[in-house]
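We now fix the convention by which a protein and its fold are recorded. The integers have meaning only within a learned vocabulary of local backbone shapes. A complete example follows; check for yourself that the lines match position by position.
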Amino acid sequence: MTDNILEQQIQYYCARANEYDEWFYRKGRYDRGAQNNQRWFNEVAVIKNTLHQIGVVNDILECKDSGLILWK
């Protein structure tokens, strides 16, 4: 991958970071009401707990459209 393409990707995702955060945290136009939002956060918790139980691995799991740095 050339440096120019990589830089374009970085700029693109940085420009959309707030939108991804709104989607992940169910804010604004992504708010689906208390019950649906809670179901979403419960499902996210299951994924996070599973990843923490797996621990450090030599390969990377990419969760597409998950926002930026949300899986800590």
About this structure: The chain has a mean pLDDT of 85. The radius of gyration is 15 Å. The chain has one domain: 3-54.
